[in-house]
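batch_manifest entry 22 of 60
target: Lipoprotein
source organism: Maridesulfovibrio salexigens
requested by: lab member K.T.
priority: normal
notes from requester: please return tokens only, no post-processing; we will run our own comparison against the previous entry in this batch. if the run fails, retry once and flag.
--- input ---
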Amino acid sequence: MLKKVLLSNILLLFLAGCSGHTTSMQDVSSFCRSLATEELCDTQDSICAKYSEITLAPYKSAKECRMSCESVRMKMNSLPDKQDCLQLLQSVEEKCNEFCNSNYE
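--- output ---
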């Protein structure tokens, strides 16, 4: 199952790179909610909401935006019951970074 999820994520990232439009908040949110999670990862809605908040804030640069993406993953990773959500966190952080790179310099 993990291989299927990983392959799906790679395919989605490849297709997103071919789309030619900037990544929006809706793209990040939809991507997050569409991912299959581990059975014990019961906080997908909370994780998706945290990343959606990032896309609503203004940033001075892509780097500052990416740091916010990383901070969500780091905070969520530090919670003991979130270990089952690591794949989700990593995948959505990549999409969040894509948002930052396409909307800021």
